[in-house]
Specification:
The protein is built from 11 helices and 19 strands. It has a 6-stranded mixed beta sheet, sandwiched between helices. The protein has a 6-stranded antiparallel beta sheet with strand order 4-5-13-7-11-10, with no helix packed on it. The protein has a 5-stranded antiparallel beta sheet with strand order 3-6-12-8-9, with no helix packed on it. The longest helix is centred in the last third of the chain and has 21 residues, at 391-411. It starts with a helix and ends with a helix. It is α+β, with helices and mostly antiparallel strands and 413 residues long. Helix 6 (266-273) crosses helix 7 (296-313) and helix 7 (296-313) packs parallel to helix 8.
Length: 413
């Protein structure tokens, strides 16, 4: 971007949108002694071209109100919790009024009796079986959520309620159901007021689609199965198809790179996202092995397979690779020890960023490197397992990454 255009966009963003939102463009961060705030930047080992393509779309959206930006954030338990990723979602969506678009592709995690982001609520009825991409052998075709839930129960239903965190940002007039039935006569449906709306198979994009006359933020989905039939659900996307920022997050507890490569419908589902930015946060589980046993070349090989799927869908996509946090790993069922693989994973991500002209957000360095997780635990940002973050810790990560991204957008081009 030339200097005149850069100054124009910066002035428009700061002088016009800032008073409207009554919020500073950068998040105000608490002063923790363990955090190396001066290292909170995006590193580009091999050029800024992909990021500039993303920023051109941000110019169009933020300055002129045109277009949309799609972000896909993928990882393991750090992402399944949807605290870090949702903080990013809110930060980006709250930059200017009416920037929030679709909520992303969701999965009914309570069916699998596992945790999820409680910024929305899911309840269900009926009998279900579930699977996830961390299991090598299973009967389900998995997609972008890495999860599946199957039912043969005619009384099965899923109730979805958005906006349970009180922000009121998310409404939808289109509901997409990802999955497949035991035969072509099975169509999920919802009841909206006095109307029963059956999903129709989308002839262009994956899944089944229901269009609504008015935007809502809650509904109940029924599976419409009879005896000896079943329906397998792999995701639900409530969307409004308006311009803005759509932030998709895909996380499965324990998922490593091979787990995401097991998702046969991942590339197909990425057609729904068409990401402009992918935030890769897979690696903490790959590196949970004794020092000397982590195979960096195999790790990068797996990432290349995953990145190639993204590039087939979005050739100009920008990439941010998040290095592993400093952590402990389980050495037995009840005992943990410091994980010395952090530096090796860090170097592997810089290699991938150089190869694919992406960025590195060096969380390992921001934390302080090897051994720093203890000080993060003492300040209440990491749990006692010294592997996962606390709510405050995850929210801090979301604010830090947002500030690094926005600082690069505004000042570093």
């Amino acid at each position: 971007m030339n200097l005149i255009k850069k100054i124009f966009c910066l002035n428009i963003f700061l002088l016009i949108f800032f008073p409207l939102t009554a919020q500073p463009p950068l998040k105000q961060l608490p002063a923790y002694r363990c955090v190396h705030y001066d290292r909170n930047v995006l590193h580009f080992p091999n050029g800024h071209e992909r990021q500039d393509t993303l920023y051109a779309k941000m110019d169009s959206l933020l300055v002129f109100g045109r277009g949309e930006i799609n972000v896909w954030h993928v990882g393991g338990s750090h992402v399944q919790a949807d605290i870090f990723s949702h903080r990013m979602r809110l930060n980006l969506s709250n930059m200017i009024p009416d920037l929030a678009s679709g909520r992303g592709i969701l999965f009914p995690y309570p069916i699998a009796r596992t945790n999820y982001g409680y910024n929305y609520k899911v309840s269900y009825t009926g009998s279900w079986t579930t699977g996830k991409n961390t299991k090598k052998e299973q009967p389900y075709r998995l997609g972008i959520t890495g999860m599946a839930a199957r039912t043969s129960d005619e009384n099965a239903s899923i109730t979805l309620r958005l906006n349970t965190d009180g922000n009121g940002l998310w409404k939808f007039n289109e509901l997409r159901i990802l999955g497949y039935g035991s035969n072509d006569s099975i169509f999920p449906y919802i009841v909206n007021g006095t109307d029963t709306l059956y999903a129709q198979r989308d002839s262009i994009k994956p899944g089944y689609i229901i269009h609504l006359k008015n935007a809502i933020d809650s509904t109940t989905l029924y599976m419409n199965v009879d005896d000896d039939e079943w329906f397998t659900l792999t995701g639900i996307e409530p969307d409004n198809r308006q311009g803005g920022i759509r932030y998709f997050s895909s996380g499965v507890n324990g998922a490593a790179v091979p787990a995401w490569l097991r998702c046969a419908d991942l590339q197909r589902d990425l057609q729904l996202v068409k990401p402009d930015l992918v935030i890769f946060a897979i690696g903490i589980n790959d590196a949970a092995v004794p020092y000397g046993r982590f195979d960096a070349e195999h790790f990068k090989w797996g990432y290349r397979q995953l990145i190639d799927q993204v590039l087939r869908v979005s050739p100009d996509c920008a990439f941010i690779f998040i290095t592993n946090n400093d952590s402990y790993r389980y050495v037995s069922r009840r005992r943990m020890a410091p994980n010395a693989n952090g530096r090796i994973v860090q170097e592997a991500f810089y290699d991938l960023a150089k190869e694919y002209k992406g960025a590195v957000w060096d969380l390992f360095d921001i934390m302080g490197g090897y051994g720093s997780v203890d000080s993060w635990e003492l300040e209440g940002l990491v749990r006692r397992d010294r592997l996962h973050f606390t709510v405050d810790g995850y929210n801090l990560l979301g604010d830090l990454l947002y500030n690094a991204l926005l600082t690069d957008y505004l000042f570093e081009r």
